[in-house]
Amino acid sequence: MGSEDNAVISRRRPVVPSPTPDSALSPQPSALVAVIMGSKSDWETMRHADEMLTRFGVPHECRVVSAHRTPALMAEFAATAEGRGLKVIIAGAGGAAHLPGMVAAQTTLPVLGVPVESRVLKGVDSLLSIVQMPAGIPVGTLAIGQAGATNAALLAIAILANNDKSLREQLRQFRHEQERQVREAKL
Ligand code: RP5
Q1: Average pLDDT over residues 68-89
Q2: Cα–Cα distance between 17 and 32 in angstroms, integer?
Q3: Contact at 8 Å (CB) between 100 and 130?
Q4: What separation in Å is there between the alpha carbon of 105 and the centre of ligand 1?
């Protein structure tokens, strides 16, 4: 693992998505959502959460935090998340995907888990690892892969929208646009 693996990307407004979590930007104190992932290799999936949050203009940060390769960093991230102003954590991981559960164990912020599609078991291992949390420490688990990453962002936005009327309106418009596209679909 190079030093770039712990770097952070912060997002505040729409930008061209970058697959390089090595931009070494400082985390912005105003980030409301953190998108973390166990490996840089998860970015191809997790960038879809980044893109949706960017589309809605939600201040967020993206970073690699590995439960098994950087356990101390994970603990520090979880312990400081609430104090830094984060409201929701989206955590993606593949294989023996313990990152979402381990982070959830160390914060009371809502944690949304995204099972990354693994090479050998196609993400079913990731899904079962994330979804089967024992009672007491919840992880809101999404679908495997891109759909899960996109929906994790939309769910985070819905949570934030409870206290943000403008975000709620944006979410309504997003749904209306989806509906319009389906109604007008020509085959
Ligand atoms: C997990 O192991 C990561 O979330 C990733 O999905 C998987 C494989 O990681 P790499 O070997 O590609 O770094 O920790």
Answers
A1: 97
A2: 19
A3: yes
A4: 20
